[in-house]
Amino acid sequence: MRLREALTDFTTRLRAARIDEAPLEAEVLLRHALGIDRRCYVLRLGEEVTPDDLEYARALLARRLRHEPLAYVTGQREFYGLLFTVTPDVLIPRPETELLVERALAHVTAWVGSRPPLVADIGTGSGCVAIAIARSTAHARIIGTDVSQGALAIAQLNARQLRVAGRLEWLQGDLLAPLPEPPDIVTANLPYIPSGEITELQPEIRAFEPIQALCAGEDGLALIRRLLEQAELRLTRGAVLLIEVAAGQAPAVADLARDLLPGAEIVIHRDLAGTGRCVEVVR
Fold first, then answer.
1. What are phi and psi of 242, to 5 degrees?
2. Residue range 83-138, pLDDT digits in tens
């Protein structure tokens, strides 16, 4: 079978499974199976695919047809222009989370202290936020925390692969608790989906991504509420807290921050779609 014919076959089968962007996903699966970039892929469209390569590609396709996320099938996902390793131990990085990186970098740039700021990425998962910050600035000390040892192992792997391992520290524990000292800037992409909405999610999410990285109680704010409670005790004056939220949650999180951190300055930042996605709290 020629590569072009395999592309047509894969696209047809993905469409039949009601998978969005079937042509693109078919190409990604084939390129990953063949170990080639897009330029080489285009040049080889008229060539025959070896039986071994075709068998491997079809095995990947079978996994995707069962609605396993493409990022888990290929083991990779791009975030902030960087390629991260992902496994079912970690949430798949999403484009909207890049807003956390941008806001954190804005505060690092504006930092006027006598020492580099301490940035803490809470619930770091794959490490994508912490590593993207480390790759973008050398003027920060960065710590990532997570309750999952499996997630921290992936974060450490990504830090090594992206050549910033020496600039990050990884600590296991609950939210801010593992930090050795008060941080200056906190980023947090915590679980925020209400438990009653899990069954409504796409099968790629509800059946494959780690439930502990998705669900946060009846209102979806259980972890964010606990983070703000810890912040009341552990953050010093002037510290910045950047929290990613689901669509529609920003006002409720802002109200929580006002109750738990009286006098804090609160700004809601919107993503490219105009959705309130990041609640910024300055103590």
1. -115, 115
2. 999 999 999 999 999 999 999 999 999 998 889 999 999 999 999 999 999 999 99
Q: Is 278 buried (19+), middle (13-18) or exposed (0-12) by CB count in 10 A?
A: buried
Indicate the helix (H) or strand (E) that contains 40: helix 38-43
DSSP 36: -
Question: What domains appear along the chain, each with residue ranges and CATH number?
Answer: 3-66 (1.10.8), 77-282 (3.40.50.150)
Q: In whole angstroms, what is the distance from residue 102 CA to residue 93 CA?
A: 15
Q: What is the distance of C-alpha 130 from the center of its chain?
A: 10
In angstroms, the CA 154 to CA 64 distance is 22
pLDDT given at position 69: 97
The 10 Å Cβ neighbour count of residue 10 is 24
Residue 244 burial (C-beta neighbours within 10 Å; 0-12, 13-18, 19+): buried
